[in-house]
Write a structure and sequence with these properties.
The chain is α/β, with parallel strands linked by helices and 437 residues long. The chain has helices at 2-12, 45-50, 52-58, 85-100, 118-129, 179-199, 201-219, 271-279, 312-320, 333-343, 359-371, 391-398, 405-419, 425-428, and strands spanning 39-42, 62-67, 103-113, 134-141, 155-162, 172-174, 229-230, 236-241, 243-244, 251-253, 258-260, 267-268, 283-286, 289-295, 300-302, 306-310, 349-352, 376-381, 432-435. It is elongated, with a radius of gyration of 26 Å. Bound molecules: S-adenosylmethionine.
């Protein structure tokens, strides 16, 4: 790895990051601000991140960073995206290094990229985070291009690194969020429910057992084998064993009418657990032995690497706000929400230092609403004017908006808050604009 780091250092001529050395610190560029608020910083992300105030306040405080940098496609959108590969690498290297110190121990960074600079980005991230902290890459879909020359590339990547991979919890998601599993679970439920309604419980239970075997074979999976129990009200579940490794013991809990003889060589779960499961209707019995009920729709898996998000969903998200065409390359809100949910806990801080139209800001607001979380968001966006003669420019004029990406970002977030009547939105959600240029 030292060799890799050496290589990257030679190319970029940058110092390696550590918490005390991420380049020049700039004194007092930023006005005072509070990290317990949602903040939008206006300016070059490198300058903002090097600001001494910003550095001191956010250092080690951020759990999740998502960035969607210009991909160096050599196309100019309403913002610029044309550099040499070396210049792009230097540009990104400085910025990713600068952001490294803001991650806390369990923090992760997710970076969108396409084929143009994937290899460059991967090499520089390996050198900054260490190859061992590479979590993996996700693949999402983008729309077909009519001008494809050889391959019609319809995917892009999100590469993902941890500050310290040993501190990161597995990325678990509900199987109902995995498109193929969702479809299969629905189909299984439909067939079993029809049987239950037409021929009663025994036939439905028998059919479930047959279908589980068949689906495992057809879909090439094994996990479904466990879900072959049907409750009287038609729910499919896994009956999980409640014995534990350890000393055999008798269970006697009169208040829930449970008496269990000791097993030969294993213990039983604690009395407290049995009582809790009983009161939550999570105990089922087979031949007098208790099992924990886990419903099929609650089953989880590690997040798969191929995701079902299309870039054009981001365009639809703007459309839903009545802001059709206000930005060229907005990412899907649901995709960023998905990543946020994989990583964050209730009071965490989320950061995006290539904020664009503010998709990450909207994703944070939505996750807070939906999951009763209290995430805070820090967005950084260059004070970049929209190129004239573009559709985005025209749209800005139509909305009587100054053609500038920061104005677009603020307008989008304000529109979202107003449309969704987020309670006390403007008091609780303070978007501070701090001009540091
Ligand atoms: C691909 S767009 C991000 C789009 C965003 N993910 C969204 O969903 O709207 C990249 C953004 O980074 C901004 N940007 C480019 N260089 C920057 C810099 N040095 N500091 C801050 N923002 C920058 C561009 O203005 C552009 O809005």
């Amino acid at each position: 790895m030292n060799e890799l780091r050496q290589n990257i250092t030679n190319v970029s001529n940058e110092k390696l990051p550590n918490d005390d050395n991420i380049g020049r610190r700039i004194e007092n560029q930023l006005l005072d601000f509070n990290i317990k608020e949602n903040n939008i910083f206006v300016g070059d992300n490198l300058k903002v991140m090097q600001d001494i105030n910003f550095y001191n306040k956010y250092k080690g405080k951020v759990s999740f960073i998502y960035i969607d940098p210009p991909y160096n496609t050599q196309v100019n959108f309403s913002y610029s995206d044309r550099r040499t590969s070396i210049a792009w690498g230097e540009f990104m290297n400085e910025r990713i290094q600068a952001s490294y110190s803001f991650l806390n121990d369990r923090g992760c960074i997710f970076i969108s990229i396409d084929d143009s600079e994937l290899a460059n980005l991967k090499t520089l991230c390996d050198s900054i985070f260490g190859k061992e902290n590479f979590i993996g890459s996700f693949i999402t879909k983008q729309s077909q291009r009519s001008n494809a020359r050889l391959i019609n590339t319809i995917h892009e990547y999100i590469i993902c690194y941890a500050k310290d991979i040993s501190k990161v919890q597995p990325f678990k998601i509900s199987r109902t969020e995995i498109a193929e599993d969702y479809e299969m679970i629905n189909k299984l439920y439909m067939e079993v429910t029809n049987k239950l309604n037409s021929e009663g419980y025994s036939s439905a239970d028998k059919l479930l057992k047959e279908l589980v075997k068949k689906y495992c074979y057809d879909y090439g999976i094994t996990w479904l084998n466990n879900y072959n129990n049907l409750s009287k009200d038609g729910k499919i579940f896994f009956a999980k064993d409640l014995s534990t490794p350890g000393k055999p013991r008798t269970v006697d809990i009169p208040e829930i009418n449970l008496h269990l003889e000791p097993l030969k060589s294993r213990g039983w779960s604690s009395d407290k657990r049995f009582i809790e499961l009983y009161h939550n209707n999570r105990l089922s019995f087979k031949a007098g032995r208790p099992y924990l009920i886990q419903y099929l729709e609650e089953s989880e898996d590690n997040a798969p690497s191929i995701l079902n998000f299309y870039s054009r969903f981001g365009t639809n998200d703007l459309k839903k706000l009545g802001l059709d065409g206000l930005f060229d390359t907005p990412k899907p809100v649901d995709m960023i929400k998905y990543f946020i949910r994989l990583v964050t806990k209730k009071d965490d801080i989320v950061m995006d230092y290539f904020a664009g139209s503010g998709t990450t800001g909207q994703a944070v607001l939505e996750v807070n609403e939906e999951l009763k979380m209290n995430l805070k968001c820090v967005l950084i966006q260059l004070n970049e004017n929209v190129h004239p003669n573009t559709e985005v420019y025209k749209k800005c004029l139509e909305l009587k908006l100054q053609p500038n990406v920061v104005e677009i970002l603020k307008f989008r977030l304000n529109t979202f808050c107003q449309k969704n009547k987020i309670v006390n939105s403007f008091k609780e959600i303070t978007f501070k604009e701090i001009n540091c240029e």
